[in-house]
Amino acid sequence: MIDPHWELVDLDAVTWRQLGRFFDPGQYLRAAQPGEHGLFLLHECGKVLRVVDSKTGVRSDLAPASLDDPQECARQLYARGEWQRVHVIDKAHLALVARVAQETPRCELTLDAYYHQVYQLLWGTASGYVSIPPHPGHWHGWTYQQVSQWVNALPFSPATLALGVLDRGCWQIGLILLCEQGRIRKITTFESLDLQALACGLSEETLTALSQQLTDTVAPPAGLLLCTRAVFDAWIEQENKTAVLLNAHQQRQAYWHWQR
Amino acid sequence: MTVQLTETGLAIAGQEVPIYAGAVHYWRLERDLWPQILDRVQELGFGVIETYIPWSVHEIEPGVFDWGTIDARKDVEAFMRLCEERGIWLLARPGPLINAELTGFGFPQWVLLDPTVQARTAVGSLHLDAAWGLHPPQQFPVPSYASKTFYAYVEQWFAAVCPIIARHLAPAGCIAAVQSDNETCYLFHDRAYATDYSEASLALYRTFLQERYTSVEVLNTTYQSAYQSFAEVEPPRDCEVAQRADMAWHVDWVAYKEYQIRWSVAHIARMLRAHGIQGVPIFHDVAFQYRTPLDIASMEREPDIDWVGMNLYRNKEGYRGAIQSVRFLAGSTRLPFVPEFGCGIWSHHSLTPTPDEQAFITLQAFMHGLKAINLYMLVERERWQGSPITRHGTFRPEYATFYKDFLVFARRYRLWSMRRSPGALVLLNYDLGRYAALASSLHFAHADLYGFPRELFQVDLELDLRWDIAREADDRRGDNWLGTVISRLEARSIDYDLADTHIDPARLSHYPLVCVPTVDFMDPRDQAHLLAYVEQGGQLLLGPGIPYLDPALSPCEVLQKHVVQEGRNEVGAGSIWWTTQQEVPTTVDALARPGDFSCDDFQVQLVSQSNGEATLLFVANPTAHKRETALRFPGSRLLRGVWGTTETRAGEGEICVELEPYSVQVWEVIA
Q1: What is the pLDDT of residues B545-567, one digit of tens each?
Q2: How far is CA A157 from the centre of its chain?
Q3: Which among B141, B390, B442 has the least Cβ separation from residue A94?
Q4: ipTM of this model?
């Protein structure tokens, strides 16, 4: 998706501060969640190396000398009810993930595809990294395949995708993506547009004006979404994205346009 | 040298030039807009700018260079002439590594894809830069800085770019200083066993061992090994310390990682000199690390490197780290300089700073001893946001106003000439940093992305030592010996500098009190320097342990011979105070010299600076809450607000001040 030579210009600082939370690639890989109370047992092919409680530190009392069945070990520890998640991690598996991912320069992969490969390597075996509860296989309902297929299937090229998030009368996010042949070639913000078009706030009129301006100055829009901050957060975090938007639209808190 | 490095900046043909600079990337800006953009730069008050000269942008295919004939934006010499016409000084950074959020970090792709250039990891793979999750928009193989082929490519680049730089060196030209490479440190993969295990690197490792031990027999004695030659020695690829005898092997690998960086930066500096970069200082910028594998004090002792700065990007919540970095620069370097000081931020950063944050962190840095600064980026460009000047040559007023006002303030008081009077120097124990580095694991690619707790990366070593090394080695915790010293100094409003035990020993005598955390082991040379400081009249506060071993855990008595008891031990004209953690507050109170001003609220920071013409009192509130406190001082004082307040206040013994959250006030002490 991400063109290795993508252009990011005229990024307004307010939009970019709001988007910063999405830039940590680790959140799309890991099972551990922010603030979660976890137990991490590190072993090497069954030999236990270290056990760490995310709140209290090293737990030598919980370290069996060895473990034969990582799944069973994780289940037993989780059954104690002390942690929200138990991780049983084979150090040799982490080494293998690193070695395979970096075997060649991988020039053919975009960065997002590279990280997706790491994700598949990390979670692709039953016993290399055991998490209970298991990794859900998605991030708040989003999957890499779903997003990349969607970008690849845009109805025309070049096409723009735009997102406007209004909060207390101000555009907190005004994001524009230019896509060509399944690649994101350019990212900019509403700053690069004539802001008069956005003066009407959250409305069908703004949606139409924005669509026209994108067509005139960047490329025809394949998807536009204007919504409130609360709707945006719900859309990101809740798994039923469609229901969030439909409900918001009824309350005049979201307007969108998808070109199919 | 035509351009001299001074304590306050540069002296160019006798003219004092403070380094208050900002980054402008000519090749990312429309050529027609260069004059307008430089107008904006000068309107803000800047007389110095900085630019990279990016290798991959100019060498468009092997041996083919575009200096503006194909793309007008690449006419770097025209940009230099424009600076000269306007009287703007320029800091030039030709790499070879530049980062600058460029795809490939400024390295041409054919260089990166040459197998004889590529670094290798401990698990035998390539070392891809994306492995730590930092660097969009595409992963690439990291070069080995030990590779001869790599330097052969760099030689070709320097042969092309250096003549251009040389034609524009000060004082006739605009270029006042040149940087050797950029943030040299394994492209951020700085953990001990992450990299570099390429053949070229292992050859350099063995050269390092040979220099260190001179003969393999000496190495065998230390390692308790039976190598026939240095060529047989393989480095550790993970923490494999099972007994004391294993320590030297691991310490040496960690020290080699430092050596490779120093060797590379000095080697590149010599290449620059050989290509005609003469008469101006050559500097280097460390990314952010002030512990192994970065050894800033030792790097500044390299004869080919004139001075070293450290980059700094912080949000307001990170102010503590920011001021610690500045204190470290003030305590360690010839000119406390931040070659990249956050002014806006790269586009994949998680928290773009607000204008208030940028102002707060900038003021904090100058408050705590910063002398020279390069705002990175002064002018926005692709993959960067939040700068005071846009790429279109217009101001972002919400960001620009502060910098304009600040430069007026700085010139008015000649801020670069102001001096603090730190009451103490706190030394980080470099050997503790090395211990923490070697006693760790999971240095695999991507491991930092999985959300593991820090303790999972640590390895407990059973070495039968007397003190808790891991605890004392952690310079981020406040509840160990080091943390207790720092807390006490700050609670008493005692200004201090930071450095590490590799400090130039001549600097120690600048401080009435030196504090250093010590455990079972310490480098005998560092111990000797501390001892000499004490013998000449210094007060040395150390603890919780007293070293009786060297870092390889062989017996070593330097300080121990003079320390017979806890508490005070008189040595020569000074004293060594061996102090437990519990006794630190009392001992600090007895030894540390408080400044003229103090306050009741330990969260409020005070620093006084003076230059013979004026005395400024900086008062900072680094918390999220409004604070009111009384400034206390002997006798009567008259203070006039010159930043953050315009009031004038007089008082006998105390003056009350109110501080907004995350704010800095500066008061001129009138009488």
Answers
A1: 999 999 999 999 999 999 999 99
A2: 24
A3: B442
A4: 0.96
